[in-house]
């Protein structure tokens, strides 16, 4: 097995450039070749098993190995493997999925525009909000405001709307017409303010930015209900109501990026349901198909959909694989299982409270500054000093160490800086949560020992 793995690693190192990695270092070390998965576990080519506490990339909501999804794909492949949605065509799975999504979304959202990914969903947002305002007779309402350390994908528009400095540095982003405000990250930036005071302060940065730019120039504000890649940053309870007040006052569209929060991650269908956010657009992807096939979209509020329908011309936007029938059939099956097995209710009432309670048993660990979570999302802050919330020097060195030591314990965690991120499949059981927390504790101990 080791020999076979080495052959695959060499092939990969010689010819494959990976996303979000130092490709030189990866080629020297060899990639972890993941060969199979079942439930919450994955196995590498050398036969090692890992509990995937990250659900792939926040996406395998149903867990791995559901045969129903494979069967749905095979059925649809045999019936209609492909047809496009351009030029007044449609296909049955795409139409059924659109209807199902409209039923699940908040009442004022009844349309979807399909894409293949979350990034493409946010590219669609970029074009749709500007087009919407032009149709409304406000062609100057163009600027989109995002947040520092937000993540909205990796395409030019997605990376521009996001506020990741490392992404902006490469390729001269953001593109013109995108601005960023501070994030509601109380733990790192809240200082001596209470969480509620800080939440208001962070939200009011939006009002200041709108006034600086002029409301007549601002098209939309985009934000994740809970920032995912930035560090599972859960805004204080004062944040979203204040944002809602501001966008309403200045007639600015609100885009809630549901790519991570959607489809049960918070214990509700959408992050908007959890925080009671009234969004105009909701980009979706990931959990829509539990990652079994690529599919995303933008959920569109009625007033925007009606404006597009009354435009009297085509919306010149779309993708060859928008509403791909096989991806749509798999997404439908995924949603059917989430609904019929009452998985989201189970998360809300049983497994998420248990996960959050068990994780708190690690809170006294000397390395841990804070453990926070909502639903099946949780973050562990690693600090040099618990009381002052002082970080270790070294730009994420401790987080990366902890992530690597967790792998040795058979646990996949992700690190953003020195924040450890947890986002397991929604189907994780109590016994598996116990294993997750035990291994996370071992990884923290090993990290502590390595730092001494
Ligand atoms: N939006 C959010 C909130 C995300 O977390 C991601 C991916 O992690 C994206 C958009 C981009 O999605 P994709 O990687 O499918 O393009």
UniProtKB/TrEMBL annotation:
Names of the cofactor(s): pyridoxal 5'-phosphate
Keyword Glycoprotein part of the UniProt annotation: no
Q: Which domain of life is it from?
A: Bacteria
Which CDD domains does the record match to this protein?
OAT_like (cd00610)
**Which InterPro entries does this UniProt record tie to the protein?**
Aminotrans_3 (IPR005814), Aminotrans_3_PPA_site (IPR049704), PyrdxlP-dep_Trfase (IPR015424), PyrdxlP-dep_Trfase_major (IPR015421), PyrdxlP-dep_Trfase_small (IPR015422)
Is Iron set as a keyword in this record?
A: no
**Enzyme Commission (EC) number:** 2.6.1.18
Tell me the keywords, alphabetical order.
Answer: Aminotransferase, Pyridoxal phosphate, Transferase
Signal peptide position in this chain?
none
Looking up PROSITE patterns in the UniProt record yields:
AA_TRANSFER_CLASS_3
The molecular function terms in GO held by this entry are:
beta-alanine:pyruvate transaminase activity; pyridoxal phosphate binding
SUPFAM superfamilies assigned to the protein according to its UniProt record, in alphabetical order: PLP-dependent transferases (SSF53383)
Q: Which family does it belong to?
A: Belongs to the class-III pyridoxal-phosphate-dependent aminotransferase family.
Tell me which PANTHER family the record gives.
Answer: AMINOTRANSFERASE (PTHR43094), AMINOTRANSFERASE CLASS-III (PTHR43094:SF1)
Protein's name according to its UniProt entry:
Adenosylmethionine-8-amino-7-oxononanoate aminotransferase
Question: Native species of this protein?
Answer: Gynuella sunshinyii YC6258
């Amino acid at each position: 097995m080791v020999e076979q793995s080495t052959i695959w690693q060499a092939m990969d190192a010689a010819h494959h450039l990976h996303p979000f990695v130092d490709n030189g270092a990866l080629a020297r070390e060899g990639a972890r070749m993941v060969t199979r998965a079942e439930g919450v576990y994955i196995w590498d080519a050398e036969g090692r098993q890992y509990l995937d506490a990250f659900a792939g990339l926040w996406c395998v909501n149903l867990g791995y190995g559901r045969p129903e999804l494979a069967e749905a794909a095979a059925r649809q492949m045999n019936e209609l493997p492909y047809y496009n949605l351009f030029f007044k065509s449609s296909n049955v799975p795409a139409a059924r999925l659109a209807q199902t999504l409209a039923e699940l979304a908040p009442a004022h959202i009844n349309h979807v525009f399909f894409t293949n990914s979350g990034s493409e969903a946010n590219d669609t947002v970029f074009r749709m909000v500007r087009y919407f305002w032009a149709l409304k007779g406000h062609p100057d309402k163009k600027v989109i405001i995002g947040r520092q350390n937000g993540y909205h994908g990796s395409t030019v528009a997605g990376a521009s709307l996001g506020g990741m400095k490392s992404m902006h540095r490469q390729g001269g982003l953001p593109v013109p017409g995108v601005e960023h405000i501070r994030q509601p990250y109380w733990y790192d930036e809240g200082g001596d303010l209470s969480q509620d005071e800080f939440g208001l302060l962070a939200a009011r940065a939006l009002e200041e930015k709108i006034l600086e730019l002029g409301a007549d120039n601002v098209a939309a504000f985009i934000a994740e209900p809970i920032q995912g890649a930035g560090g599972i940053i859960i805004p204080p309870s004062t944040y979203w109501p204040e944002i809602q007040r501001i966008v309403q006052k200045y007639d600015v569209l609100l885009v809630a990026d549901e790519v991570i929060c959607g489809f049960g991650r918070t214990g509700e269908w959408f992050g908007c349901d959890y925080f009671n956010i009234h969004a105009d657009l909701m980009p979706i992807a990931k959990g829509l198909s539990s990652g079994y096939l690529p599919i995303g979209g933008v959920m569109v509020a009625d007033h925007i959909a009606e404006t597009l329908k009354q435009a009297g011309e085509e919306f010149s936007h779309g993708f060859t694989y928008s509403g791909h029938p096989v991806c749509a059939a798999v997404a439908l099956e995924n949603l059917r299982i989430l609904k019929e097995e009452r998985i989201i209710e189970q998360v809300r009432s049983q497994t998420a409270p248990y996960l959050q309670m068990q994780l708190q048993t690690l809170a006294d660990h000397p390395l841990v500054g804070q453990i926070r979570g909502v639903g099946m999302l949780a973050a562990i802050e690693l600090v040099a000093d618990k009381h002052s919330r002082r970080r270790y020097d070294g730009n994420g060195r401790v987080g990366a160490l902890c992530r690597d030591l967790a792998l040795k314990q058979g646990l996949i965690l992700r690190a953003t800086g020195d924040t450890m991120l947890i986002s397991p499949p929604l189907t994780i059981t109590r016994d598996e949560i116990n294993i997750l927390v035990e291994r996370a504790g071992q990884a923290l101990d090993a990290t502590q020992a390595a730092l001494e």
